Amino acid sequence: MVVFVSMWFYYDHHFPWSTFLELVLLPDLAMLGYCFGSRVGARCYNLFHTYVFPLLCIGIGLMFENEIWAMLGLIWTAHIAIDRSLGFGLKYQDNSSGTGLGRLTTINYICD
After folding, report:
1. Cα–Cα distance for residue pair 83/42, rounded to 1 Å
2. What percent of the chain stands above pLDDT 70?
3. What's the per-residue H, E or C state across 18-52?
4. Which among 6, 47, 85, 93 would be 20 to 30 A from 101, CA to CA?
5. Mean pLDDT of the chain
């Protein structure tokens, strides 16, 4: 549901879809934190995959009428919602493939 709401507002504000496609995977760069161990990786991933910061971006964008902040927040929110719908929850710090939404069978760590 969050995916559709984010994308509807994105569409309603006439933001460019090319920018959406270019930036939608950007929060996954937080997985580079796994190069410094599972604890740092999980913390980086979880920091960039909670709704707090994208909602702040949207709020700042609306409050100051700044379309860039609102657009980035909507893209970020959609990314998190897509991850959740695919089963990628927040990560545990114990070097397992477990998440808050269950155990993943895919490779989660890019630097192992």
Report:
1. 15
2. 83
3. HHHHHHCCHHHHHHHHHHHCHHHHHHHHHHHCCCH
4. 6
5. 87
The residue with greater pLDDT, 12 or 87, is 12
Buried b (16+ CB within 10 A) or exposed e, 47-74: ebbeeebbeebbeebeeeeeeebbbbbb
Contact 76, 58 (CB under 8 A): no
One-letter amino acid for residue 93 of the chain: Q
Lowest mean pLDDT among 2-11, 38-47, 48-57, 90-99: 90-99
**In this structure, how many other beta carbons lie within 10 angstroms of the beta carbon of residue 88?**
20
Q: Residue 78: is it exposed, middle or buried by C-beta count within 10 angstroms (0-12/13-18/19+)?
A: buried
Q: Which residues pair with 103 in a beta bridge?
A: 98
Q: Does residue 104 carry a pLDDT above 80?
A: no
3-state secondary structure of 99: strand
Pair 12, 90: CB distance under 8 Å: no
